């Protein structure tokens, strides 16, 4: 079924030369190399298997360096390989053709040597084509001769020096008279200033190129005629030799092209490629899809369409460190591989599993069943996710006073209200809701300023507090009972506004009615915030846990209890109205029965919100470091953000942040660090090289499985390939032995194709932020990202 044959590569041009060297008796010379292959005896195929696999030996041991090395020579192989010349039945014909090829090669060698004499003419170390030598001689002879002597020109135009200059100066002194004789004696002792670019200037009439000095017209005519004739003869001889060589090479190539030697075709089906050196590298494969009639490239978890041109570029070798090391050919006439089979009884075409042997067919069927089950589970998950995306994140709740409330929101807590008071309260709530719906918070909070002021208890503390979006108030609270940081949170601001809007109900019907109205106002506000489509810099989930719960469809009991706890916060005790509302809320909390709210679910949802805040902090700090170009620190925070966000997003669409955003900046950090590490390695300095490899080993390599584990993230896979190619490009380059050794030790780690997540060090320390500070910093960083274009995001 299968045949496996090792072949030597070094010294051969194509696959046929490798096969000839392996099967022919004696020494077989390569057409394109001085190397040769030896075989003890002739080898012939009596019968060929359906599948032929050729193992190309591209490695040899370097005795000088004491280690194996890869052979990067170019080796061509055809898409269709005809093996007739290697068949035992064709041995006589093949021997005749081999003898003819041998004779032609000997003659070819003689012609190539003769051609070399024309192309490399001369006896010295530098040689030139004879045609060019004759052309240069013709150009020199035809140059215009120069009649004047350069030496004479220089002697007449040179500036006088030496004794001449000393005589010229005294003559000037004598004309000046005796009064200046002493003063002018000094200039006669000055040295003459040498000006090379003025005193040694070449006369303008000298030629700019060499030319013969004396030549007659008759001599020039005879010489030009000879040189023209010789040049023409050399051109003709060179062209004849080149044409003869090309004709002989073509004859050798077509020696086996007659029809009788094209009866056993084998089509190339797969090529295995290795990129790198003998001790490290990366592997991928090209496989031909006979149904779609195209080549497919299988590179790790990536499967892409390819072409024969790309296969040639990656597989032939000679251009870079990538080359084929294994070729698989299949019999092009074998029905099992290229034709459909037909049932002998029914005459119907059989294909696919029916063409396999029974035992293999049963195994494939079982494996297919398991795979189909996995696909069904995957489709179900995708369908559920799609439904969650289509469903509105927050169903609108009718804002009616007659909405059915749980028992702990209906029954009085501590006050013994009569039935009539309860009915009056309901009517008052409905009326007040209509009256106050359109009033802004500032107006509501400052309403009833004419009412009697509330007295301050002796044990209370009076302070003035400025609350954003609300105003400045005189706050009365018990000693140690007021936390200004809590009071400034968005949650507390909303509760204060809700209590202010419910002032009329509170004054008419008492604290419990005021509490009912305030909690309805607040829930309606949070519901509206949850339904808004806001940009990332204004994420209301960070402001309010209840918005997070509503968007993620938390149970209604969880939302109600959370809202009650916010109204029951002791920081609301800064005036009598708020204290009374707070006490009502605390009483309602005590009325909740154990079976009404599942506390395990309650704690789980609040822990989910804590995880969301931690994810936000990791993301925010990571992006801040990225903008400051602290890529090491940014990568650690973004990795934690990605992991936590992945866990959150698995439970719902609105549980976390934009996964593509985190992936983009995590990927950018890795690429930046890879560039930095590569630059340090290229510097050659031991300290810098060690720092670069430390970055790769401690940060980049552990992160590669994180990028490869998700097959749908094509950008991550491309980034990994870019990083690997950058380091593989150093293979084959000249470098110091110690650098080569370090690169050899490091590359297997980088080229490890496993997707097993490697452990990191402890997560970076998580800073603590108040709600206001977190919201402000997150809004600032997200707003800056929106102004900066992110390519590929």
TrEMBL record:
Keywords: Coiled coil, Hydrolase. InterPro entries: Papain-like_cys_pep_sf (IPR038765), Peptidase_C19 (IPR050164), Peptidase_C19_UCH (IPR001394), USP (IPR028889), USP_CS (IPR018200). Pfam families: UCH. Residues 168-190, 399-417 have a biased composition (Polar residues). Residues 1-332 form the USP domain. Residues 156-190, 396-417 are annotated as: Disordered. GO terms for cellular component: cytosol; nucleus. GO terms for biological process: protein deubiquitination. Residues 361-388 form a coiled coil. GO terms for molecular function: cysteine-type deubiquitinase activity; SUMO binding. The keyword Hydrolase applies. It comes from the Eukaryota. This is Ubiquitin carboxyl-terminal hydrolase 25.
């Amino acid at each position: 079924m299968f045949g496996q044959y090792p072949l030597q590569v070094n010294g051969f041009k194509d696959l046929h030369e490798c096969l000839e060297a392996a099967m022919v008796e004696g020494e077989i010379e390569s057409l394109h190399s001085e190397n040769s292959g030896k075989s003890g005896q002739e080898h012939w195929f009596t019968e060929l298997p359906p599948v032929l696999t050729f193992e190309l030996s591209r490695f040899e041991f370097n005795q000088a360096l004491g280690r194996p090395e890869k052979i990067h020579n170019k080796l061509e192989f055809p898409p269709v390989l005809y093996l007739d010349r290697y068949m035992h039945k064709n041995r006589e014909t093949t021997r005749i053709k081999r003898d003819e090829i041998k004779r032609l090669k000997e003659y070819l060698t003689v012609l190539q040597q003769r051609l070399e004499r024309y192309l490399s003419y001369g006896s010295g170390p530098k040689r030139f084509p004879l045609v060019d030598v004759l052309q240069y001689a013709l150009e020199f002879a035809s140059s215009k001769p120069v009649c004047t002597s350069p030496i004479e020109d220089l002697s007449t135009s040179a500036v006088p020096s030496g004794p001449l200059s000393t005589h010229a100066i005294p003559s000037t002194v004598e004309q000046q008279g005796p009064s200046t004789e002493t003063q002018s004696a000094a200039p006669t002792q000055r040295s003459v200033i040498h000006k090379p670019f003025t005193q040694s200037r070449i006369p303008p009439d000298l030629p700019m190129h060499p030319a013969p000095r004396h030549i007659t017209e008759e001599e020039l005519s005879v010489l030009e005629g000879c040189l023209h004739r010789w040049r023409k003869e050399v051109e003709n001889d060179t062209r004849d030799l080149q044409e003869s060589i090309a004709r002989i090479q073509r004859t050798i190539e077509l020696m086996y092209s007659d029809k009788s030697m094209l009866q056993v075709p084998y089509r190339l089906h797969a090529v295995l490629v290795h990129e790198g050196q003998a001790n490290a590298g990366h592997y991928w494969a090209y496989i031909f899809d006979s149904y779609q009639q195209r080549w497919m490239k299988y590179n790790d978890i990536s499967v892409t369409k390819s072409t024969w041109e790309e296969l040639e570029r990656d597989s032939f070798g000679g251009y870079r460190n990538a080359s084929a090391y294994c070729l698989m050919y299949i019999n092009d006439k074998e029905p099992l591989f290229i034709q459909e089979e037909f049932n002998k009884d029914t005459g119907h075409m059989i294909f696919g599993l029916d063409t396999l042997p029974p035992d293999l067919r049963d195994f494939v069927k079982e494996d297919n069943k398991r795979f189909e089950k996995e696909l069904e589970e995957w489709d179900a998950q995708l369908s559920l996710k799609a439904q969650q995306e289509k469903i509105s994140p927050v169903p609108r709740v009718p804002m009616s006073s007659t909405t059915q409330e749980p028992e702990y929101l209906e029954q009085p807590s501590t006050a013994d209200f009569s039935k009539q008071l309860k009915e009056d309260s309901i009517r008052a709530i409905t009326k007040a809701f209509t009256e106050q719906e359109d009033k802004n918070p500032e107006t509501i909070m400052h309403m009833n300023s004419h009412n009697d002021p509330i007295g301050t208890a002796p044990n209370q503390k009076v302070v003035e507090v400025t609350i954003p979006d609300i105003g400045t108030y005189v706050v009365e609270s018990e000693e140690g009972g007021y936390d200004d940081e809590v009071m400034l949170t968005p949650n507390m601001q909303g509760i204060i506004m809700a209590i202010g809007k419910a002032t009329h109900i509170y004054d008419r019907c008492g604290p419990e009615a005021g509490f009912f109205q305030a909690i309805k106002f607040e829930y309606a506000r949070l519901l509206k915030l949850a339904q808004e489509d806001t940009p990332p810099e204004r994420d209301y989930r960070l402001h309010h846990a209840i918005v997070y719960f509503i968007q993620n469809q938390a149970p209604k009991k969880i939302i109600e209890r959370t809202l009650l706890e916010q109204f029951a916060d002791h920081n609301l005790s800064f005036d009598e109205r708020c204290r009374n509302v707070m006490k009502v809320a605390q009483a309602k909390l005590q009325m909740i029965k154990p079976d009404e709210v599942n506390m395990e679910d309650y704690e789980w949802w609040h822990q989910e919100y804590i995880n969301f805040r931690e994810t936000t902090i990791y993301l925010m700090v990571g992006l801040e470091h990225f903008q400051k170009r602290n890529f090491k620190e940014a990568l650690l925070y973004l990795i934690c953000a990605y992991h936590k966000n992945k866990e959150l997003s698995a439970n719902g669409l609105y549980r976390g942040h934009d996964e593509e955003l985190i992936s983009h900046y995590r990927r950018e950090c890795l690429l930046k660090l890879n560039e930095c590490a590569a630059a340090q390695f290229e510097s050659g300095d031991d300290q810098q090289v060690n720092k670069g490899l430390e970055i790769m080993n401690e940060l980049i390599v552990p992160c590669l499985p994180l990028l490869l584990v998700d097959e749908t993230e094509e950008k991550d896979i491309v980034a990994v390939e870019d990083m690997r190619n950058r380091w593989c490009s150093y293979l084959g380059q000249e470098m110091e032995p110690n650098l080569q050794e370090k690169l050899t030790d490091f590359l297997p780690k980088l080229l490890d194709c496993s997707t097993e997540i490697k452990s990191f060090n402890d997560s970076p320390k998580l800073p603590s932020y108040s709600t206001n500070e977190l919201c402000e910093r997150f809004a600032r960083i997200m707003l800056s990202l929106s102004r900066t274009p992110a390519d590929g995001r």
